Amino acid sequence: MSRQITQPLNQVRLTNVAVVRLQRHGHRFEVACYRNKIVNYRQGTETDLSEVLQTERVFTNVSKGQFANTKILKKCFDTSDEETVCRFILDNGDVQVSDQERAAQLESTVREVATMVAEKCVHPISRRPYTTTQIRDAMKSVGFMVHPTRNIKQQFLDCVRLLQEKQVLDIERAKMKLAIVLQRQDGGGGEDDDNDKDLLQKRRDAATKLLIEEGVTTADIQPSTSSTDTRIVFQSNPALYRKIDSIARHETVQGRLEIIQQCVTEEGDVALGCELERRAQ
Question: pTM higher than 0.85, yes or no?
Answer without folding.
Answer: no
